[in-house]
Design goal:
This protein has three helices and four strands, in the order ββββααα. The chain starts with a strand and ends with a helix.
Amino acid sequence: MSQTEKCPSCVDGKMFTPFASFADGSCGPAELPCPDCGATGQITAGFAERREAGKKLRAERQAAGLSLGEWCRRTGEDVVKRSGLERGFIR
Ligand SMILES: [Zn+2]
């Protein structure tokens, strides 16, 4: 059982982007599926807090001037796990 709350990043799983680029090379406004909640509009409770914590992790890595892959090679962290942590999907 997991509690959910409304995704703070989107409306009902859709995210409005003023400058999306399309396959035909044009660009313009578009509605995209929200990457934060997987386009469900719902996130597990506490996601906002985890996302803030993730931003700090990302800032720490960027301050060191390292890409995600480079960071993980040096620290021995798992790339998928680190990526999820930085985006707040996992704790
Ligand atoms: Zn969302």
